[in-house]
Amino acid sequence: MSEQALLETPGRLVDVGFGVSAVTTAELAAAFPSHQVVGLEQDASRVAAAAHEAPHLGLRAGGLEVLDGEALVVRVANVARGLSKEDAEALHGDVVPRLVEGGVCLEGSTDVDGHVSAFWVLRRRGAALVREALVLHTDGERGFSPWLFRDVLPRDLRRDVRPGTPTHALLSDWATAWEASRSASPRESFRASVIALAERRADVDSRFVAHGFCAWRP
Predict the structure, then answer these.
(1) All structural domains of the chain with their residue ranges
(2) For the domain 4-137, what is the CATH code?
(3) Model pTM greater than 0.70?
């Protein structure tokens, strides 16, 4: 997935729920120095501590309700993990008015250290968010198996990994490709298995596999 066209013009990027520290917000700011980056966190003590460590970052206490204006990208990581499916859908609805038309919400989860992650790419189209792809990423630090992603799937897919479902079919097909192409290198096993999977499934995008990304358009 590439958002080069969306990010050509400087605008706002929002990191919702940066957690114990503002590492992800700092990474966004470093990657996009021409954009305004805002980090949000409900815990005011965490905001104060992070602001002390990185006073140059734009950090605010609260959620989406404290934003004024619209953003090009809203990243929501590990926020919906503990919500009900209905509350996760309500969260998506809250994001819509905070995005420019055509803007993107990245909503999903990671493991504790950020080595494995799965995010929906949700695009604002009018008054709704449209699912464009599920992006799966790993840096190989935890080794690799397609089933690693089962524990970090977005909230609405977490209980959808059972025989007969599209998510289970994807991971099963991927595991078959991985078993046939795995090597001692987790990153190489990821790369080879994604390429093999994309050859047999038209809904899998391997264009960014060299960077540790696989996109699924269910």
Answers:
(1) 4-137, 140-213
(2) 3.40.50.150
(3) yes
